[in-house]
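Aim 2, interim progress: modelling of the iron/sulfur cluster-bound target.
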Amino acid sequence: MRVEKSSSSISRVRCVVHNCYYNDHNNSCLANSIEIQPPDARDTEATDCATFVNSTGR
Ligand code: SF4
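Predicted structure of the complex, ligand included:
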């Protein structure tokens, strides 16, 4: 689900995924909202941002 891109970053979220369409390249996210998946994650490695959109392959 594509969300709108905001002019201000989400506070209290640090994201270093610089190839994401929503990343401001300063470790912040400009998406209006984010969703983290999956519901049954058991560790850090299994937890991902479902809002991610590849900035080079959209
Ligand atoms: S949408 Fe997710 S992966 Fe992309 S910058 Fe925001 S928090 Fe990071």
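The beta strands are 36-37, 48-49. Residues 1-58 form one domain.
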